Amino acid sequence: MAEASRIFHSTLFPTLSLQLSKPCYNSHVYPSLSLKKAPRPVQCSVSTSETKSTSSNATQEVPWGCDIDSLENAEALQKWLSDSGLPPQKMAIDKVAVGERGLVALKNVRKGEKLLFVPPSLFITADSEWSSPEAGQVLKQYSVPDWPLLATYLISEASAQKSSRWCNYISALPRQPYSLLYWTRAELDRYLEASQIRQRAIERVTDVIGTYNDLRLRIFSKYPDIFPEEVFNMETFRWSFGILFSRLVRLPSMDGKVALVPWADMLNHSCEVETFLDYDKSSQGVVFTTDRAYQPGEQVFISYGKKSNGELLLSYGFVPKEGTNPSDLVELPLSLKKSDRCYKEKLEALKKHGLSASQCYPIQITGWPLELMAYAYLAVSPPSMSKQFDEASGSMDLDVTSPKQLNRRVFLKQLAVDLCTSEQRILFRAEYILRRRLRDMRSGELRALRIFDGLRNIFK
Ligand SMILES: C[S@@+](CC[C@H](N)C(=O)[O-])C[C@H]1O[C@@H](n2cnc3c(N)ncnc32)[C@H](O)[C@@H]1O
Questions:
Q1: What is the mean pLDDT of the chain?
Q2: How far apart are CA 85 and CA 449, in angstroms?
Q3: What is the pLDDT of residues 214-239, one digit of tens each?
Q4: C-alpha angle with apex 259: 254 to 263, nearest 5 degrees?
Q5: Does a structural domain hold residue 8?
Q6: 179 in ligand 1 pocket by Cβ < 6 Å?
Q7: Are residues 251 and 340 in the same domain?
Q8: 30 a known binding residue?
Q9: What is the count of structural domains for the chain?
Q10: For residue 124, is it within any domain?
C-alpha cells in the first residue's frame, strides 16, 4: 500500500500543476468572473433555489444554435470553415457513439500525425471584432475580464444573426449545451446529494448568476439600446457560459490565451488519449498530435485534461463510462472526533504541520497520498501509544454517504448514478483498505508514522 500511496502521490499532485501548462480545455480552476471595476464582491441576488427561470423542467431555450443529436447546420459550418481558410481536413463532422456529434476520420490517420490546423483568423478571443462596435467599446471601457466579455460577445454575435461573421458557427453550436448550469437547485440537491461536486456546481451557478447581475447593474442598464434585456438576460448568459465551460480552449503556446476554436471544438474527450489542443507556432494554427492511429470512419478524440468524473460533469456535462477514467478521484474528508480524549494533543500535533481538525485528501482507485495515512493513523491512535494519552479513543470519520438515488429526469438521474457509482467505488475501496490498515496499526505497526517527523515525535 505504501508503494501505491507513493505512486499516487507522485502522479496526482503533479497533475494539478501540469493542467495549467497543458493545452487542455478550460482550466480546472474556475476563472474570476468579477468585473475589474467592481471592488465589491460579486453579488448573488438571485437565489439558487428554484426560481422562475429554473423551476420548470422545460428550461427556456435560446433562439439560436441547434440540436446536437442531429447534423443540422453541420454541413453549412464545414462549408463556411473551408471558405474562411480552413485547409482540407482528414476528418468530418458526423454522428458518433461517444458525445453524440463529433469528428470522424475520413482517411487513415497515423499515430504522431498533426491534425486540424485552424488558423488564428478563425479563433474567437477577447480581441475579436464586434458586429456591434458600440457594444465592444462599452465593455472595453469597463475593463470587463475575458470570460464575461466572451459570454457577452457570443450573445451579441448570435443576436446579429446573418450580419455576424460567426453566424454559421453559432448556428451549429448546441441550443442547450450539456451543463450543470441548466440543473435546478432541487435537481442538484437531489441528484448530486452524495457528491462534493454538488457544492461546486452551486457555487458555479451562483457565480454565473452574480456575474450576469453585475454586468446588468453596472453596464447593461446604463446602455439599454445597446444591451436590450430581451437579448442580454439570464437565459442567454446561461447558454453562453455553458458554451464557454464546455468549449473554450486555453492555448499555452499563446501565453495561455483563451479562445473558442471552431472545428477543433467538435472533438470529444476520451480518457484513453493524452493529446491536447495547442497553437503550433511553425504551422501557425491550432493542432493536436494523434497518440494513436485511426481508420476511416473511426471517431477521433482528444483529452480535455486529467479530470475526475465530477470535474468532467461540472464543466462538460458528461460522466465517462464506469471504470474508464484513470484520473477519477474523490476528495475524502477526515476529521478528528471532538469526543476523542486526546483531541487537544492531536490537534496541536496537526497544527504544527499547518493542518486542522478536518482535512480533505484526494483518493483515487489506485491509492492516496501518504499524508492521508499519517492523518488517519493519528486520528485513530489510542492513548496507549503516547504517554500523554489516557485511554484508547478516536476513530476516523469516513464520510461515506450513500446516494439516494420522463426524459430529463431519467437523463440527469443517469448522470448522477454514473457519477455516484464511480465515486462510491473509490470511497468503498478506500474505506476497506483504510480500515484494514488502521487495524494493523492498532496491533503495533507504526512504520507509516515516520512520514511526518512531528507526528513521530508525539508518539515517542
Ligand atoms: C467541445 S464539445 C465537443 C463537441 C460536441 N459533441 C458537439 O456536438 O458540439 C464538448 C461537449 O461534447 C460532449 N462530449 C465530449 N466528450 C464526451 C464524452 N466522452 N462522453 C459524452 N459526451 C461528450 C459533451 O456534451 C461536452 O459538453
A1: 80
A2: 62
A3: 999 999 999 999 999 999 999 999 99
A4: 110
A5: no
A6: no
A7: no
A8: no
A9: 2
A10: yes
**48 DSSP assignment:** S
| CATH at 81 | 3.90.1410.10
* Residues 205 and 82 occupy one common structural domain: yes
**Per-residue pLDDT tens digits for 239-281:** 999 999 999 999 999 999 999 999 999 999 999 999 999 999 9
Confidence at residue 333, expressed as pLDDT on a 0 to 100 scale: 83
Range of the domain at 367: 330-458
247 alpha carbon to ligand 1 midpoint, in Å? Answer: 9
242 by Cβ neighbours in 10 Å (0-12 / 13-18 / 19+) ranks as buried
- Ligand 1 within 6 A of 174 CB? yes
| Atom number, ligand 1, closest to the C-alpha of residue 172 | 9
CB 94 within 8 A of CB 104: yes
- Rounded to whole angstroms, what are the CA distances from 111 to 288, 293, 295? 11, 4, 11
ipTM computed for the complex: 1.00
pLDDT tens by residue, 125-149: 999 999 999 999 999 999 999 999 9
Which among 355, 313, 322 is positioned nearest to 455, based on CA atoms?
A: 355
Instruction: State whether 346 and 252 are in the same domain.
Output: no
Tell me if 225 is assigned to some domain.
yes
Whether 288 and 240 map to the same domain: the answer is yes
d(C-alpha 460, C-alpha 441), whole Å: 16
